[in-house]
Amino acid sequence: MILVLRTEVTSEQTAALEKELQARGLITQDIIGEHTRMLGLVGDVTMLDPETLGRNDLIERIIKVSEPYKLSSRKFHPTDTIIDVNGTKIGGKDFAVMAGPCSVESEEQILTVAREVKLSGATFLRGGVFKPRSSPYSFQGLGLEGLEFMKIAREKTGLPIVTEIMSQDMLEVFQRDVDVIQVGARNMQNFPLLRDLGKLGKPVLLKRGASCTLEEMLQAADYILIGGKSEVILCERGIRTFETATRNTLDLSAVPVLKQKSHLPVIVDPSHGTGHWELVEPMALAAAASGADGLMIEVHNQPQKALSDGQQSVTPALFHQIMGKVNQIQALVRGNGEK
């Protein structure tokens, strides 16, 4: 439910109304437009009598929101959300590129890749330290040792780090040491984890579940946003279909659909989306053309020796080539450069 306030309502009156609604167990979202001010209400709004509300001198009209997601909805937040990570932005006219290996394997490896991708224009360093693998016999990551290597790479290069959280017992460590906390596809609907992440005050990169609809993804985002402290980046990384030529089916139509329905920034992962390094470039270019706010690309200095997902990792040289083409496309799409 959205309450459209009268133009003459003061900030003090709005604050008093919010306090009254919050006392009834509702979450309020202040929405300030160019000519209007509104209050978005999340919670059990059935307790509110629309007729009584309509007689309130502060309220001009009431808009009912039918979507099952609220806080991630563009109706609640008409303007695009831009997330600032220590001066590096995601969304708006800024195109974020998160690059690095699937798994952190050693200090030397992550430092080498970090330096290479930064030279090519990456704005974030991604790397897995806890790896959710389908097989219990596959490499599971270096854990906290790997996170220490990521922190060293951040110190040496200045790149903010992105890595995946697997369980709630790591919340304190991730809050302290990680710049953007990734929630993988397998945990997209781990609702207790999402709720706790929403209380940390850290940006959360939410990957789409392999068999989840966009509506389910936005509802999962609401689980984080309802905590009131964390911001969310949505990531399309491919879904499971009947097709076997690629690891997943990369749903690039998700980008404009999500941008239409939500104010949250949307990035694309062509590495997991295809599972083949030679397909990363065309899908990265297509993602930039579709209006995505960024990319997540797996880069390894020796893909043939990678401990995980080497078949979908590009070399630093190929990443440099991809970035040159992506920058040209996104400049046209966003109007940041020459046309």
Structural commentary:
The protein has 11 helices and 14 strands. With 339 residues, the chain is of the alpha/beta class. The protein has 2 domains: 2-63, 2-Layer Sandwich (Alpha-Beta Plaits), CATH 3.30.70.1140; 83-334, Alpha-Beta Barrel (TIM Barrel), CATH 3.20.20. The strands form 3 sheets. The chain has an 8-stranded parallel barrel with strand order 7-8-9-10-11-12-13-14, surrounded by 5 helices. It has a 4-stranded antiparallel beta sheet with strand order 2-3-1-4. α3 packs parallel to α4 (144-157). The chain is elongated.
Helices and strands in order, then pairings?
Blueprint: E1 2-5, H1 11-22, E2 27-32, E3 37-42, H2 50-54, E4 59-63, E5 83-85, E6 88-90, E7 96-100, H3 107-120, E8 124-126, H4 144-157, E9 161-164, H5 171-177, E10 180-183, H6 191-197, E11 204-207, H7 214-225, E12 232-236, H8 254-261, E13 266-268, H9 270-274, H10 277-289, E14 294-298, H11 316-334
Parallel strand pairs: 7-8, 7-14, 8-9, 9-10, 10-11, 11-12, 12-13, 13-14
Antiparallel strand pairs: 1-3, 1-4, 2-3, 5-6
Helix pairs in contact: 3-4, 3-11, 6-7, 10-11
Q: Report the end-to-end length measured between terminal Cα atoms.
A: 42 Å
Strand order of the largest sheet: 7-8-9-10-11-12-13-14
Supply the helix-strand structural class. alpha/beta
The portion of residues assigned to helices is: 25-40%
Mean pLDDT: 92
- Please state the oligomeric state of the protein chains shown: single chain
Would you identify the CATH H-level superfamily of the largest domain? Aldolase class I
Radius of gyration, in Å, reads 21 Å
CATH architecture of the largest domain: Alpha-Beta Barrel
Count of discrete domains? 2
The coarse overall form would be elongated
Largest sheet: 8 strands, parallel, barrel
* CATH topology-level fold name of the largest domain: TIM Barrel
Binned strand content: 15-25%
Tally of strands: 14
Number of helices: 11
- Topology as H/E string? EHEEHEEEEHEHEHEHEHEHEHHEH
CATH class membership of the largest domain: Alpha Beta
